Amino acid sequence: MATHTYEIRVVGSIGPAAREAFSGMGIELEPAATVLCGTLDQDGLHSMLDRVRALGLELIDVRQAPGASDPHSSPVSES
Fold it and tell me: Of 68, 62, 48, 47, which Cα lies nearest the Cα of 4?
């Protein structure tokens, strides 16, 4: 399955428990949001979105990073 680099943006700063739930993803803090970034296949993307919902985080945006597909990278797939 093809992988792409995705950015998942949620409202506010996420705490330690949520950070643990997203291990394997890059986490960047912005003034009003947290950006989760990682190379995912479709199953991994859906798993991350399920995790966002399960933790009660407010989703702002999901974006595929332009030109960031890497056919040789290992996807994060956690179903």
Answer: 68
Burial (CB count within 10 angstroms: exposed 0-12, middle 13-18, buried 19+), residue 35:
middle
pLDDT (mean) for 20-44: 94
Q: Where are the domains of the chain?
A: 4-64
Architecture in CATH of 4-64: 2-Layer Sandwich (3.30)
3-state secondary structure of 25: coil
- For the stretch 58-79, pLDDT in tens is 999 999 988 655 444 444 544 4
Contact, 43 vs 77, CB < 8 A?
yes
